[in-house]
Design goal:
Length: 526
């Protein structure tokens, strides 16, 4: 492969070759609302309906004129963009708006969240990982301080002859020269065990089929083994739990319970007691699992997740990077199932389609103020992206949340069209999942198809990409698969989706279903 100028390729060589092989190798030249444009071989501009919309980042579409005009005005005013370590009121302005929204949407919420800004969703997740560990370490430090004081009290009591050391299962006292020797042996063994436990990294909790990013820490929270397994040695481990079996969550967490050894003097006797050790760092949850075919959490799962976090004492981190900012018909998708988080992450649409921005929010009851100094970023909290974020929030909240109502209505209309196709092709479509403008169509497994091309592509996980390539090639509609299995196709357009767009989408989907029903696998080949 060579570059357009005929020279060597230094970026995306493998990726671009692969995209071309599945019919997705197109370079787009212009974009507006839900439409992308490319120039064909005849020099003609071809419009493409975009159902990917920046992986759900464009709630107001490509190059929204109001946001673009605002961005130009911001630049014309010569707003300071990078002024690190100075007062930056725009950060508090964004946080104030977000707190007002959270106060409205979180059940029983008080709208008191501290904000730390980031450059991307994955970075916001990593910030939460860091803060959760800071919080966990504070709990560990408090626990070790208490055990240290108790050890000194035991030494004082034994040394004064006011206490004896009881037998215990942790250390043998054969050959001990007295109570002080017995105590020191006990404290040494307890200290050894405790140091080993304290030296362990945290175990995080996440749901099966989770996607929380691909950076060093966030990739550990993303279950897809193709992405995660090469890097498991780099960060903390994660226990993945099933969202559809909330009753099993408590049992799974019980398996992670472990104890620190402490000594107490009780009625003249030194005994060993086990203290719960905070091994679990945090529970990361997407209210709508994008990589799992746009499946929303159930209210039962949300209740059990909250109960688990309360029982263990770890923060519940609600990842609204994909589902938040109005995409599901509410600012927070978690508000649909009554899920209350201790931390929240937001990104994607907060950038208005033209800036990179993200934010992690921490409830004040858990926030460690020193984190504002411990974590920093050159590009986060910049003046330009902050100005865009304020404009996006203003547009979302305008007219008493009209954008949310539109997202819900357009989503219902689109989902109805997708469901109609599913009803007409029950042998081809398994289900339609999602809420608002965060939808997916799940096709039935084709690994045993009678058509050899279909069977082979399904077995390799490529079928969804070939379906997307056909829809692009023959219908000028852009979709992409969602999830590691590759048998679901995503639909997450902006709120400017029209009835004509929905009709075109339904027609294209019926064409795909006909191909699968008739086992016409050769039509999928670019």
């Amino acid at each position: 492969m060579s570059s357009p100028a005929g020279g060597p390729v230094f970026a995306d060589r493998v990726l671009n070759d692969w995209l071309s092989s599945v019919g997705l190798g197109i370079e787009y030249s212009r974009a507006e609302a839900n439409t992308l444009y490319y120039v064909d071989e005849d020099g003609q501009e071809v419009p493409v309906l975009d159902h990917v919309c920046g992986f759900g980042s464009l709630i107001f579409g490509h190059n929204n004129p109001d946001i673009v005009a605002h961005a130009k005005a911001v630049l014309d005013r010569q707003v300071p963009v990078y002024v690190q370590l100075s007062h930056q009121s725009h950060a508090n302005d964004i946080a104030a708006v977000l707190n007002a929204v959270l106060r409205r949407e979180i059940p029983g919420g008080d709208g008191d969240y501290a904000a730390i800004f980031a450059n991307s969703g994955a970075e916001a997740v990593e910030i939460c990982v860091k803060h959760a560990e800071l919080e966990r370490r504070a709990r560990v430090a408090k626990l070790t301080d208490e055990t240290g004081r108790n050890a000194e009290e035991a030494r004082e009591a034994v040394g004064a002859g006011r206490a004896t050391v009881a037998e215990n299962p942790y250390v043998q006292f054969d050959g001990a020269s007295g109570e002080s020797d017995r105590l020191e042996r006990l404290l040494a063994e307890a200290g050894r065990r405790n140091a080993e436990l304290i030296g362990r990294g945290p175990v995080h909790l996440a749901l099966e089929n989770a996607f929380h990013g691909k950076l060093v820490a966030s990739i550990q929270l993303t279950q897809n083994p193709h992405w995660r397994l090469p890097f498991t040695s780099l960060a903390s481990s994660t226990r993945f739990l099933r969202a559809d079996r909330p009753d099993e969550m408590k049992a799974a967490v019980e398996e992670l319970r472990t104890s620190l050894l402490d000594v107490l003097v009780d009625d003249g006797v030194v005994t060993v007691v086990e203290r719960d050790f905070p091994l679990v760092g945090a529970f990361f949850v997407e209210p709508v699992q994008g990589a799992n075919g746009m499946r929303p959490l159930t209210e039962a799962a949300a209740r059990e997740i909250r109960a688990v976090c309360d029982a263990v004492g770890c923060p519940l981190i609600v990842d609204e990077i994909h589902s938040g900012m109005g995409r599901t018909g509410a600012f927070l998708a978690s508000s649909h199932m009554g899920l209350r988080g201790d931390y929240y992450t937001l990104a994607k649409s907060i950038g208005g389609g033209i800036a990179k921005n993200a934010v992690a929010l921490f409830h004040r009851d858990r926030f460690r103020p020193e984190f504002e100094v411990l974590h920093s970023s050159t590009f986060a909290k910049d003046g330009f992206s902050a100005a865009i974020a304020l404009k996006v929030l203003e547009m979302l909240e305008a007219d008493d949340g009209r954008a949310y109502r539109i997202a819900a209505e357009r989503g219902d209309r689109l989902k109805g069209a997708l469901a109609a196709v599913a009803a007409d092709f029950p042998d081809v479509v398994d289900a339609v999942h999602g809420i608002g403008l965060m939808l997916a169509v799940e096709f039935k497994d084709q690994t045993r198809a009678s058509s050899e091309p279909l069977r082979e592509k399904a077995a390799s996980g490529m079928l969804g990409y070939l379906i997307a390539g056909l829809i692009l090639r023959e219908h000028h509609i852009r979709v992409l698969p969602v999830g590691p299995a590759g048998n679901s196709v995503r639909f997450e357009p902006s709120i400017y989706l029209t009835d004509a767009d929905i009709a075109r989408t339904e027609n294209a989907l019926r064409d795909v279903c006909t191909i699968l029903r008739d086992q016409d696998g050769h039509r999928l080949t670019p």
